[in-house]
User: What shape does this take?
Amino acid sequence: MIGQFIGFAIWGFIGCIFIYLGIRSFFLKEPMVFWANAQMFEVNDVKKYNYAVGKMFFLYGIVLIFLGVPLLFLEKNPAWIFLSVVGIMFESITLMVVYSMIIEKKYKKNRD
Assistant: This one.
């Protein structure tokens, strides 16, 4: 039982890191970078962009923590871990799609 709790605590800590990134994004003066090692595009409204990215990271962290709950019940039914693994896969893909298709399109400065 202690192993499941430690696993969930680590999972929850990682979720809290994303929640922290979301909250931190609300207070940044420059645009929050999403993709690692990529050139950041010019943003037309930094405050609204950071709010959208912050909200996205915050929700990602909350959902990530809830997806870790099956880790607490691995002793009774180890098949529950499948829910966490598949859930985080779909959550991560959704995060990338929302950023690329909605946030980046909306806040990218046009070069007319």
About this structure: The mean pLDDT is 89. Residues 81-107 form the longest helix (27 residues). The chain has three helices and no strands.
